[in-house]
Amino acid sequence: MGNSIEVKDLTLNFGSVSVLKNMNLDVQEGEFVVLLGPSGCGKSTLLNCLAGLLDITDGQIWIKGKNVTWAEPSERGIGMVFQSYALYPQMTVRGNLSFGLKNAKMPKDEIDKRVARAAEILQIQPLLDRKPGALSGGQRQRVAIGRALVRDVDVFLFDEPLSNLDAKLRSELRVEIKRLHSRLKNTMVYVTHDQIEALTLADRIAVMKGGVIQQLSDPQTIYNKPSNLFVAGFIGSPSMNFLPGRTVEGGRAFLFDAMRIDLAGYDGGAVLERDQAILGVRPEHITVTHQAPAGPSIPAVVEIDEHLGADSLLWLKAGEKDLCVRVPVEGRLLAGTRVHLGLDISKASLFDTKTEQRI
Fold this sequence. Notes:
Blueprint: E1 3-14, E2 17-28, E3 32-36, H1 43-51, E4 58-63, E5 66-67, E6 78-81, H2 93-103, H3 108-122, H4 137-149, E7 155-159, H5 167-184, E8 187-192, H6 195-201, E9 204-209, E10 212-217, H7 219-224, H8 229-234, E11 241-248, E12 253-256, E13 259-262, E14 274-281, E15 286-289, E16 297-307, E17 311-318, E18 321-328, E19 338-343, E20 349-352
Helix pairs in contact: 2-3, 2-4, 3-4
């Protein structure tokens, strides 16, 4: 399986401002890659470079083995789906789907065949003779996806296509996009700031910050073994808990607020002794007990018990540090209750405070 998209040493400057910095990215044939990051990190800018909507400053872009760095968008073999539906209001759904094909002078029977196929895949056959004004937001976004689908291209680029929809519709369309990828097996590059979309849709996620890819890996690795503090804090809701301290005893233990935490079972590299380190533990990898457990633990005081239905979020104070723990719903814990927090060190992350990199 070869590369469908290759980005080589791509740099983009707007005047003296560097927006994308010496970026390299390979997307495999049929892969679903999500570009994830906060606003202003460069993810949509990178997608626009792939689409040919922005001229890059330096580097190369290859699609399907062809150098398209300076090719027109129409020559790149891509279909693009934007955040705004950008449908023609005066045309029916059928007219919107077929408009680009008619402009390309495609035979009518081929146009009809492609429109029918896209409508069947997206389940919008009953909507073909309606105008966009008579459609819901989710239906309009399906039509926008269909307009890219009829072009019969190898690569689809999605720029935050679900961000205009409400939470329920977003969830439904997310599943449909995943089904679409499973059925079509096309290469898809998808931009979002929503980590749930990224974790559920992606084969691999590229987490971006400041025009640089911080980590590129499968969702499980990104979640369980974040490469640095930024990725660890950005992925996960609520965010990972960070305990500042230092490693002692040749790296066999961690000292937080004068409390010793045994690091036996840490699934990382050689820890060694470090004057400044940060222990990261996700809310679901901490247990709450009234008696001190056998393994690594720290005492804490409950501040807020937040019921979420299936589980609860406990907000606690350990020393001067605020922590969050996800626990099953088993009756409320009153504010001021003293508890012990058991830490699953096998699923924890250690970071060097100075470099912010995972140890």
